[in-house]
Design goal:
Chains A, B: Keywords: Hydrolase. Chains A, B: Pfam families: GTP_cyclohydroI (PF01227). The structure is a homodimer. By secondary structure, the first copy, chain A, is an alpha+beta fold. Helix content of chain A is 34%, strand content 24%. Chain A has 13 helices and 15 strands. A five-stranded mixed β-sheet of chain A has the order 6-3-4-7-8. In chain A, strand 9 and strand 10 form a beta hairpin. The longest helix of chain A is centred in the N-terminal third of the chain and has 23 residues. At the A-B interface, strand 2, strand 3, helix 5, helix 7 and helix 11 of A face strand 2, strand 3, helix 4, helix 6 and helix 10 of B.
Chain lengths: 439, 439
């Protein structure tokens, strides 16, 4: 029996047990078919997402340093002696040490070769990935990649710039739907060593000019500044009821990953993760919304008129939602578009009610197909039998596991009544939808 | 001893031997440090890129079908009975069966659930990947993904739309550099089954409207039309000298991958691949360009004036190049920007000469760092000692192996003379560069 494998197996089992405690704390039946294998899937995903703890930079860089001449004569820098090399737009993901949710990273790495040798380009990405696949904070991630490359390649200098995206936490304070909500906290950090150690070095300007093409500028970066508050869990004051069994379960997950739960940055992590997770606890409340609140006739006649008033397709677009994938216990998040027939658009109160419906079904362990159906059914009881619902979402489980499909998104559709039978009605509504941006 | 592993090991060895024959046919010393391990790397990459031959759809889909209710009553479609589900923008890559080069695929998959069950979203991507990781043509790839999902999930219908990008082959006919050159052949194909079987079905309109956000429309797709000519190797009439040992080596690679080299689509593949590869054979020609051809003083004084004429930074931007990565025997391709000091810009003849320099160093087994240095050195002998060269490239080896960093690009810089010592000169030149698009 292989000890390492055996140990790995036990640790996964330990994570599975912890996930069962979390699911029960959320009020779920852990034998329900959709979540029966969720503990197994979560453990597997976490193990994959933190495999960097067991990887070594030297194993990656070893054998990938190639001799490469510099300039003859030497009135400049080029090739293996001084010619700046930049690899841009590497998509990575990491796990936030503050709240245990995954965050996306767009990584740009540069180095100045020395001693007439260069490193294989893909190794810059592979080394970055070793440190991304751990519990991280953006600045520390940049620093660790930078230091590892400096030690591994021994070049004249290394520069690392990371653009990190972290999911927003819901703000319940605002009563009205916040349609300006972008869904993501963005931050840019940088780290430099050797020729890049000095923040004001001219070579940083060269580096950023070549990233500038994509909207990055040095003014956005604050090398050396630690962004304590980038994770929205730290600014969330909401306190959720969770029990000590759940807290202990998260602590045991941290320990299983090889982390020290008493490390300063991790002390509050179980509580912050549970603050997020408890948004999605199962509730047996029924959604009862009085359609008279919407101030409207909820049964427009199918002939296209209510009395003498013509009935048109109206829509409420881009209602934001948060949800948690019941298969992987990971966030998915995006917008809901609702189409209906009416002689006039909803007022502010009506829109708030629709947003409440969206939140009611979003804040659960979910799958997007069910969310779409539930919103359509409830909306139908409010706005009449002719309803079309489109949900567009980014699924963290599509990027933060082995699959790593950055930039992918999922759209689901429910059609009721006239929208089901009339392709022209669907086409008119679909044409009115704004562009969905997955980040 | 595990027989499957043993067999795999022998096949990889067989690919390694074939790659050695190819390298020797290119005139390379297979013991040179940069390419000593290239046979091993090529074999490993090809094995990884064609692992789909050994994967089964049922292994992926099994256990990932979840019960999910449809609408009660049934005056519409939603959830697990009829609600359209679309996963968009899945980045994949495949290998072209016509020429053995990798091509990029942006994959969009939709299906209509039936029998109150849905499939895990990531499985749509994983099933697509099984068929992408084989030697393929775009329409066949779309058809195979579609058929496999129809059989595996048994839904009401499946739709697959693929946007494929294939590297252009160099056109030597044009004497002048083609600055409008985009570097990529793009094609859009689609395949449908069940509710999507009929091309004119209204549900195709719904599907394309949701892709429309990203510039895809049904008018660009021609379901059922086979694009015989999408691979540029088929329209290339250039005949290269290659020997029968090299042809036999490519045939043995095809056989090692489990393909039948006598399959109709593969009969011409060894010849087409060698037509590509022989562009990059080693030549001992020296690059001798007479600077008087450029009709200029090649030593502008460092004070910023030649006689009474003021000397400014001039640039030749976006000169296209093709090259072949010597570490992985895979294309990298992009643009070269050259900055220099002069009182006037080059004329058409001068630009043609610079493009020749770029092609001369591009058409070899290369690394980007060396290419950049060589262009800078040669340009310096033509345009004076103050030279800056920026090379921007997409490396196929960054996407078509295990690393799969779609959208990444690499920039390398060489600076000579004044550009080496004057940050403001570098900044001025860098600011003039156009946006680089990796696809």
């Amino acid at each position: 029996m292989n000890n390492a494998l055996d140990e790995g197996h036990q640790l996964v089992d330990c994570i599975e047990d912890a996930v069962k405690v979390l699911l029960q704390g959320l009020g779920e039946d852990i034998n329900r078919e959709g979540i029966r294998k969720t503990p197994f899937r979560v453990a597997k995903a976490l193990r994959e997402a933190t495999k960097g703890y067991k990887q070594k930079v030297n194993d990656v860089v070893h054998g990938a340093l190639f001799p490469e001449a510099g300039l003859e004569g030497g009135s400049g820098q080029a090739g293996g002696a001084g010619g700046l090399v930049i690899v841009r737009d590497l998509d990575l993901f990491s796990y936030c040490e503050s709240c245990l949710l995954p965050f996306q990273v767009q990584c740009h790495v540069g180095y100045v070769p020395s001693e007439q040798r260069v490193v294989g380009l893909s190794k810059l990405s592979r080394v970055a990935d070793i440190f991304a696949k751990r519990l991280q904070a953006p600045q520390r991630l940049a620093d660790e990649i930078c230091t590892a490359l400096q030690h591994g390649i021994k070049p004249t200098g290394v520069a690392v710039v990371l653009q990190c995206l972290h999911i927003h936490f819901p703000k319940f304070e605002s009563a009205l739907p916040d349609t300006s909500h972008q869904g993501w906290v963005k931050i840019l950090v940088s780290s430099g060593s050797g020729a890049f150690e000095e923040e004001k070095a001219d070579i940083w300007t060269d580096f950023f000019r070549l990233l500038n093409f994509r909207g990055v500028s040095k003014d956005n970066a604050h090398p050396g500044v630690v962004h304590q508050s980038w994770c929205p869990s730290k600014s969330s004051n909401k306190l959720e009821q969770s029990n000590s069994a759940m807290t202990n379960a998260v602590v045991s997950i941290l320990r299983s990953l090889g982390e020290d739960p008493s490390r300063k940055e991790l002390v509050g992590t179980p509580c912050r993760f549970l603050n997020w997770l408890m948004n999605f606890r199962n509730s047996n409340l029924e959604m009862k919304v009085n359609s008279f609140l919407l101030g409207r006739n909820n049964n427009p006649s199918p002939c296209g008129k209510i009395g003498d008033t013509e009935v048109l397709i109206c829509s409420e677009l881009s209602l934001p939602f948060w949800s948690q994938c019941e298969h992987h216990l990971l966030p998915f998040q995006g917008v809901v578009h609702i189409g209906y027939y009416s002689s006039d658009r909803l007022d502010a109160v009506g829109r708030t009610i629709l947003q409440s419906v969206v939140h009611f079904y979003g804040f659960k362990l979910q799958v997007q197909e069910r969310l779409t159906r539930q919103i359509a059914e409830t909306t139908s009881s409010l706005l009449g039998e002719d309803i079309m619902v489109v949900v567009e979402a980014s699924h963290t489980c599509m990027i933060s596991r082995g699959i790593e499909k950055f930039g992918s998104s999922t759209a689901t559709i429910a059609v009721l009544g006239r929208f089901s039978s009339d392709p022209a009605a669907r086409a008119e509504f679909l044409q009115s939808l704004p562009n969905f941006c997955s980040t």
